[in-house]
Amino acid sequence: WLRSLKTAQLQHLAQKTGIPSSGPKAALVRNLECGLGECYFGLLPPPPPPPDAPAVVGTGDAAKKPNASMSILSIDMGIRNLAFCHLLVDPASPHSREEMAMPSVKLNAWNRISLPPRMVSPAEFAQYLASSFAEPDPGPDPGTGSEREKEESFPLHLYATHAYVFLSTLLARYRPTHVLIERQRFRSAGASAVQEWSLRVGVFEGMLYAVLVALRQQQQQQQQQRRQQPGSGLSPWVVGVEPARVGRYWASSAPPNTSIQDCEIHRKKSTTNEGKRVKIDLVAGWLENGRVRIPPGNEGEGEGDQVGRWVDGYLARWRRSRSGSRKEKVDVKAEAKERKVDVGKLDDLADCLVQGVTWLEWQVMRERVVREG
């Protein structure tokens, strides 16, 4: 039935489902047929194993189980500003599918860290991660001048270790069913030069994928030795998400379920700064109106009140940036100081959360298209 649609209709459908929307009609049909077949909503990996089971991970070829809950780990790439969030998504009910309602999303963890400039063990990194939840954006210890030089030199063995420790810590902590990793581009804004920092982040991105594949192979060997059924362990799907595609998704229409008043910006030709502002405003709107909720401290697997403090700090800084008068800015600053939270830059935190929610909306739309045609 896709071949009966016009090219403009195919492009619109591809954009709404996170599928490449460029090329002639024949290419669009092929992209949609392939992309719609990769629907992760409604067909999910098995639920995580018990806490005493070994924490191993793979690329997601486990047996599929319909209508399971989703545990999404969304990573916004960086070295000094590496942001991530963990989202819990309730299973889709038949009633919600009939009404085309978005599933409930809980923000279980939200953080931004800087990779330490030295080797750390998994236990040390877990402690560093816990301290970063308690004290937002602490950053690594700047150390001495020689340590700064080592950091600038970007030793590959150091960041390979960080890739393993970072992923193994988060996988053991949150046991995600899906891992989303921001895709990197070596050039930005059409520039001809390739910045060194983009190369470093791109190399680190490749290391994350290599670690995930290595852990998957390790899992398969363990299963063969123990004669377990393939895919019986924790094996999240790993998906790369292109930021440009996320931006185009929100630029094509006003965001649903948001209390932001100035939605006209979503229809403008996006620039880099406008794109950042759009995402920051989107997240603030979701947090204000309950589109993204915070699980109570005594429920789920979350960091409890620490997530609430990050949300309060984000909203306080966002309101301060939008305040017109000096008095309003002082009042908002006093509110943030009362909570003793300063989350720093908002764009990295917004990027990882928008990436997770957008990818979820793509999957819901794909499931609907496959189901209804």
- Provide the CATH topology: Nucleotidyltransferase, domain 5
For the CA atoms, what is the radius of gyration? 21 Å
The end-to-end span amounts to: 8 Å
Q: Strand percentage, roughly?
A: 5-15%
Order of helices and strands: HHEEEEHEHHHEHEHHEHHH
Number of helices: 12
What is the CATH top level name? Alpha Beta
Widest sheet: strand ordering: 7-6-3-4-5-8
The multimeric state of the shown protein is single chain
Q: Averaged pLDDT, please?
A: 77
The profile of the biggest β sheet is: 6 strands, mixed
Q: Domains counted in the coordinates: how many?
A: 1
Number of strands: 8
- Portion of residues in helices? 40-55%
Write down the overall geometry. globular
Poorly predicted sequence stretches spanning 5 or more consecutive residues: 44-63, 138-145, 255-270
- Given helix and strand content, the structural type is alpha/beta
CATH homologous superfamily name?
Answer: Ribonuclease H-like superfamily/Ribonuclease H
CATH architecture tag: 2-Layer Sandwich
Topology (elements, then pairings):
Elements: H1 7-16, H2 25-36, E1 43-44, E2 65-66, E3 70-76, E4 82-89, H3 94-98, E5 105-113, H4 122-134, H5 145-153, H6 156-174, E6 178-182, H7 196-226, E7 237-241, H8 243-251, H9 272-289, E8 292-293, H10 305-322, H11 326-339, H12 347-372
Parallel strand pairs: 3-6, 5-8, 6-7
Antiparallel strand pairs: 1-2, 3-4, 4-5
Helix pairs in contact: 1-2, 6-7, 9-10, 9-12, 10-11
